[in-house]
Amino acid sequence: MATRRARPLKAPDKLVFLLSFVPYLLEQRVVAVPEAAAHFGMTDDEIRDAVRLIATSGLPGSTGTYQPNDLFDIDWDAFEDDDVIVIVHHVAIDDAPRLSAREAAALIAGLQYLSASPENQGSASLASLMAKLTAGASAAPSRLAVAETEADASLALIRGAVSVGRQIEFDYLNARGEGSRRRADPLRIISQDADWYLQAYCHTREDVRNFRVDRMSDLVLTDEPVGDHSQHAVPDTLFQRSDSDLDVVVDVSPSTLSLLADYLADSRAREVGGRLRVTLRLAHVHGLKRLVAGLPGLVTVVSPPEARAAVAEWAEAGLAGYREVEASEIPRTTGSDDI
Q: Is residue 169 part of a domain?
């Protein structure tokens, strides 16, 4: 049953409606007036008026006048006799810019990745969107397959543990490279940029901890139910400050400052040589390496000396790896004695 509004649409709203109405009719191919009215929340008469308006719309030809093929046309017999809308001729719609095959393939790959997550499996909406991207591209998109990573499999097991309220056991490698076996009550899963984190009550540490999913391995879902942790405050934010945190002074590009908001020790910033000097608060110096790597050329470590040394040593190790690869690719000159 169509929803009736108290007042008619204003001109801007009517334009937005018509821009949505035409693609809807083309996609449906054949649609009854009451069905279209229910879809857009309008009355049957408003839909009929919109159809008549569309039939007088078009794009003038090279002569500047409207010829028969320059206007939209509908099946008038079906419209007047059966109250059914069928567009039999349309103009200009096919001139709309389309995604390239590469652009469509990239978007489809992203949707496939989303479809692989447990909460999106079998999603009709995602499947429909992928089909539309495939059909609407300027050429056939490349066929891509998104491989499931070990972190994806771990994430699926963790989601299951959260939903059924059972403990998990796993090996965990922290940022310092220290490994240990943990038993935890999973509380919730959080995403931060490209990483997934588990907030859980760690029985080993006897407190709520954050675990990065890609550092968890050999996960086991136990039969033990999670305990009551109402007395433990679960932080609203992913990263919490502590007295053991390390303050690191860095110079950053002004456009990069918003990307470091989670790490800022305070709101103070001063300009130094066209950059902003700010203080970051990190759990340890090892996390600084990954932060700098994610913003190449945009972050310069100023102090403390141990932070500068750690980043410099890490960068030098990376460069050494490239030198080894380049050296291995240099062809060896063969002398006559080697033949």
A: yes
CB-side neighbour CA atoms (13 Å) of 122: 2
Residue 234 has pLDDT above 70, yes or no: no
Amino acid code (one letter) for 336:
S
Whether 81 and 96 have beta carbons less than 8 Å apart is answered as no
Residue 48 is part of a domain; what is its CATH number?
1.10.10
- Predicted model pTM: 0.42
Q: Is 113 exposed, middle or buried (0-12, 13-18, 19+ CB in 10 A)?
A: middle
What are the φ and ψ backbone dihedral angles of 123, each rounded to 5 degrees? Answer: -70, 120
Q: Do residue 275 and residue 291 come from a single domain?
A: yes
Same domain, 90 and 15: yes
Digit-coded pLDDT (tens) for 95-116: 455 677 777 777 887 777 666 6
Structure confidence by residue, pLDDT tens digits, 282-303: 777 777 777 787 777 888 888 8
Residue 125 one-letter amino acid: S
The tally of domains found in the chain comes to 4
